[in-house]
């Protein structure tokens, strides 16, 4: 059993959003990072896949040590006090694959695999199309047997947690000086040009009896809030990356410099054992047809297999575990 959602994010961009996506991810990661906590970039390099062509492979570690006490009591019972989320992403824009799993750290330099970790994974596939979110069957080829809950997210009207709200990043009030876009009002998706949709197929799997439904729903809410904040920021930061201001080479240089500064800001020392040396759980099924075909140093690991069980639909807990920008 797993919990799967197809999320539609309608955006006021065309497919040139590729530069905006890279800019937003780098800047957002730097802003949300602090000493001992945040996003450490481990790998970021060109990557070629026989099915999807040229792309970029990144590996990141999201350290959440100070967030453990903010978790619900049922979550604190199973999460180690010192841990991070390993994220691997294959970006073949306008198609991307992202996978996350939890690892725990004991002492400073030793990376261990906790007993419950193979039971947990997050798999996100993203496709971008120039439409208003009308393509509910966009992932039918990759996951035709996978039942899912479909939801639409409005970057202007859907709420984010109060402590992350900034009026300067609110699409209802922001007005771009370069493009004239902004101050999105009710019904903007029907009239705004240009328009595009970011479709995200999000699969959360936590195979622990007694906690599965609660954890999967909780994680879906966290993922939803993170993605909504990021898309709002990409819209509000458009004047920083749009048009002639930033080419692909320039955004890659910005990405490199920002990642280097973020790693120094976190102050994390590399562990004695790299993540690639830790054995991944085996699977009797192959990875989804959309997953990269080369191994992790080159290939997507087996734990990325998209489950085919029917999701349970219950309201998610209200607690959010994003890093607190005030600290």
TrEMBL record:
GO CC terms for this protein? Answer: cytoplasm; nucleus
Bias-annotated ranges (Low complexity): 279-301
Q: Does the keyword Nucleotide-binding apply?
A: no
Record keywords: Lipid transport, Lipid-binding, Transport
Instruction: Please state the span of the N-terminal signal peptide per the UniProt entry.
Output: none
Enumerate the spans annotated as Phosphatidylinositol transfer protein N-terminal domain: 16-260
Instruction: Please name the Gene3D superfamilies in this protein's record.
Output: 3.30.530.20
MF GO annotations:
phosphatidylinositol binding; phosphatidylinositol transfer activity
Q: Locate the region Disordered.
A: 279-327
The yes or no answer to whether the keyword Iron-sulfur is present is no
* Catalytic activity, as annotated: a 1,2-diacyl-sn-glycero-3-phosphate(in) = a 1,2-diacyl-sn-glycero-3-phosphate(out); a 1,2-diacyl-sn-glycero-3-phospho-(1D-myo-inositol)(in) = a 1,2-diacyl-sn-glycero-3-phospho-(1D-myo-inositol)(out)
Q: What does this protein do?
A: Catalyzes the transfer of phosphatidylinositol (PI) and phosphatidic acid (PA) between membranes. Binds PA derived from the phospholipase D signaling pathway and among the cellular PA species, preferably binds to the C16:0/16:1 and C16:1/18:1 PA species.
Q: Which PANTHER family match?
A: CYTOPLASMIC PHOSPHATIDYLINOSITOL TRANSFER PROTEIN 1 (PTHR10658:SF55), PHOSPHATIDYLINOSITOL TRANSFER PROTEIN (PTHR10658)
Q: Which family does it belong to?
A: Belongs to the PtdIns transfer protein family. PI transfer class IIB subfamily.
What protein name does the entry list? Cytoplasmic phosphatidylinositol transfer protein 1
């Amino acid at each position: 059993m797993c919990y799967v959602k197809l999320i539609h994010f309608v955006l006021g961009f065309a497919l040139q959003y590729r530069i905006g996506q890279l800019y937003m991810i780098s800047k957002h990661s730097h802003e949300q990072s602090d000493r001992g906590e945040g996003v450490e970039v481990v790998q970021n390099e060109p990557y070629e896949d026989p099915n999807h062509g040229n792309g970029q492979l990144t590996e990141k570690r999201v350290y959440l040590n100070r967030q453990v006490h903010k978790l619900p009591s049922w979550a604190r019972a199973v999460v180690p006090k010192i841990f991070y989320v390993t994220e691997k992403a294959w970006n073949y824009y306008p198609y991307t694959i992202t996978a996350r799993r939890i690892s725990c750290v004991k002492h400073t330099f030793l990376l261990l695999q906790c007993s419950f970790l193979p039971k947990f994974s997050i798999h996100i596939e993203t496709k971008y199309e120039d439409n208003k979110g009308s393509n509910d069957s966009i992932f039918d080829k990759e996951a035709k047997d996978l039942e899912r809950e479909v939801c639409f997210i409005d970057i202007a009207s859907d709420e984010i947690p109060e402590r992350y709200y900034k009026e300067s990043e609110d699409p209802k009030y922001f007005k771009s000086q370069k493009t004239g876009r902004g101050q999105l009002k009710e019904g903007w998706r029907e009239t705004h040009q240009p328009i595009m949709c970011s479709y995200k197929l999000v699969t959360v799997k936590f195979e622990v009896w007694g906690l599965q439904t609660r954890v999967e729903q909780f994680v879906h809410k966290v993922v939803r809030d993170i993605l909504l904040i990021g898309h709002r920021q990409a819209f509000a930061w458009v004047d920083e990356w749009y048009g002639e201001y930033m080419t692909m080479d320039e955004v890659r240089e910005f990405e490199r410099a920002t990642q280097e500064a973020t790693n120094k800001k976190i102050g994390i020392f590399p562990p004695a054992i790299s993540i690639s040396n830790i054995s991944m759980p085996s699977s009797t099924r192959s990875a989804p047809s959309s997953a990269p075909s080369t191994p992790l140093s080159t290939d997507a690991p087996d734990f990325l297999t998209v489950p085919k069980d029917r999701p349970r639909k219950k309201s998610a807990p209200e607690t959010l575990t994003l890093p607190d920008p005030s600290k």
